[in-house]
Design a protein that fits this description.
alpha+beta; 3 domains; six-stranded mixed sheet; two-stranded antiparallel sheet; 10 strands; 47% helix; PD-(D/E)XK endonuclease-like domain-containing protein; Restrct_endonuc-II-like; PDDEXK_AddAB-type; PDDEXK-like_dom_sf
């Protein structure tokens, strides 16, 4: 299997989008943010290209403006938005140039392509992980830095950066290219252009091995889904810029409804469902309030039963023993009854498995005998707009 970080990231975000993009090969229209980011990257790549001299700031800005003018017409946005992106891009580049004059860096490569071979120890299959690193610098003797530019506004916490899969993959790519490099001598950085801030992390040899295990787990998961062709959609904030909304089962009805406004019956059913669900929720709140008042009255009067015109209400108190589990285990285990007494809390089990090492997690996942599927309906009381905004409140 040949794949990349972006493909695997797409799968982890939404398996159905991965299917549309990587298996069905349905071309999706790039978002304005993606096109803007690509043009900014081109300008920065040009900025650090010496032939034979580095370009001036004006030359870099001119290069960006020309590329933006060539690409903006493909965007379905207003002239005001186009002008905003143009000015924002020029401001980003100017701020970056003044803080990072190209002649102050020892740059080894730009837009560096790499391939990492991953062998699955279980199936013996060889998978190829390919990608492109924005920039590789040499910091000193035997010390290197990988830099990836980001045009997004949100900066991750240090904890999230320390687990960033993209940087881990780039690190693997660098070591594959230059095997003599020690993992501890590689600095991994994300440069957030909007803020003019660079945040960095590192990986040791154990972390890189764990990354390989994580990648193989994801690849195995994808290959299993390919057998059944079941790639479920996952809705979230990312839906707002997904190019497949009009064919996605999570969103398709929104567009079909616009084309077929006479679909009265299902609209009536949806409205009734909302109405009854809201009524049930309101009644549940009323019931809880009445229960609280009844408990209060019973406590005040020292009663356990109340009588009314419609019947009576009895309070039943149930006592549940809390055992010293270590002591109980010492008694039951020698006689072979301890396992019979255990009851698995599936939510706690899932949480425990996620926290395990890659090797231990893989050992447990081999013992899955089936995937249990449950189906429920969730309602969003906030009217969903075409922008794909998340609902403010939801209910089952």
């Amino acid at each position: 299997m040949r794949t990349s970080y972006s493909s695997l990231s797409t799968y982890q975000t939404c398996p159905l989008r991965y299917k549309y993009q990587e298996i069905d090969k349905i071309k999706g229209k790039k978002s304005k943010e993606q096109i803007f980011g690509t043009i900014v990257h081109k300008a920065l790549n040009y900025m650090f290209t010496r032939s034979p001299l580095f370009p001036t700031l004006d030359e870099v800005l001119d290069s960006f403006s020309k590329n933006w003018d060539a690409g903006k017409d493909a965007l379905d946005i207003t002239d005001a938005e186009k002008n905003f992106f143009l000015e924002n891009g020029r401001n980003i580049i100017k701020k970056f140039f003044l803080k990072n004059q190209p002649w102050n860096f020892n740059i080894l490569d730009l837009e560096s392509r790499f391939e990492v071979l991953l062998e699955d120890p279980e199936t013996k299959e060889i998978h190829v992980l390919a990608g492109i690193i924005d920039r590789i610098d040499k910091l000193g003797e035997g010390s290197y830095e990988i830099i990836d530019y980001k045009t997004s506004r949100r900066m991750p916490s240090q904890d999230i950066l320390d687990k960033n899969l993209q940087l881990s993959i780039y690190h693997l790519g660098l070591i594959k290219r230059w095997p003599h490099i020690s993992p501890g001598e590689v600095k991994l950085s994300l440069y957030f252009l909007e803020h003019g801030e660079k945040i960095s992390t590192k990986r040791n040899a154990d972390a890189l091995e764990a990354t390989k295990g994580e990648l193989l787990n994801t690849i195995r998961e994808i290959k299993e889904k390919e057998k059944s062709a079941l790639f479920p959609p996952l809705a979230g904030s990312w839906c707002a810029w997904c190019p497949y909304r009009k064919i996605c089962p999570m969103w398709r009805h929104l567009y079909e409804k616009e084309k077929a406004p006479n679909d009265i019956e299902i609209k009536k059913i949806v409205s009734e469902y909302f109405s009854f669900k809201e009524e049930i929720d309101e009644r549940n709140d009323v019931v809880k309030a009445l229960q609280a008042k009844i408990h209060q009255y019973l406590d005040e009067k020292g009663l356990e039963r109340l009588f009314g015109d419609d019947g009576y209400i009895t309070r039943r108190a149930l006592e549940k023993p809390v055992y010293d589990l270590d002591a109980v285990r010492n008694i039951l285990e020698p006689i072979g009854k301890w396992q019979d007494a255990l009851k698995v809390d599936e939510k706690k089990l899932e949480k425990t498995i996620k926290a395990l090492s890659t090797a231990d997690r893989n050992s447990i996942l081999k013992n899955i005998i089936e995937m249990k599927k449950t189906v429920s309906l969730a309602i969003s009381r906030k009217k969903v707009s075409d922008a794909g905004e998340d609902a403010e409140t939801q209910g089952a």
